[in-house]
Amino acid sequence: MAIKWYGQWTTCLASSAGGRCFGIMSGVKAKKILFVCHGNICRSPMAEFVMKKLLADAGVSGVEVESAALHTDEIGSDIHRGTRAKLVEKGVPFERRRAWLLTAEKAHGYDLLIGCDAWNKADLLRLVRPEDEGKVRLLMEFAGESRDIADPWYTGDFDATYADVLKGCTALLARLTA
Fold it and tell me: What domains can be seen in the chain, in order of their start residue?
């Protein structure tokens, strides 16, 4: 089926999950983007600051980018030291911040809700209002891949996480500017 999503037509796949739309849009017109992961200290803040740098480097303004947690484990914590080190190494500016927990009310204010893995996507779909389900995506979907970004909290591999985040954010930027 085709629907109009934030001013753009997209094709959605009918699914056993009530016909939710999980297709990826070309020419996405999002003004507020939220990246989420489990604790909001590794992957989602990395994606937030990489995306902000890509937007600035491309001269794109008027797009707000933030990140949040889906679980309470790290609420109030700053970015993980491994993420900070990787951002410094790659020349990606960042600032001190505190992990915060996403609510359905806050999620409603964003145009895109982007998870880093299938668990994040499932958590988002349980959390958000029915009218916001079409905003939920996985970051790697923008790069044409249906896979997770490995969590460096468990793998310790911030290089692989950064490579995936950069690939997904670069593909998202291309859709935003199409």
Answer: 29-176 (3.40.50.2300)
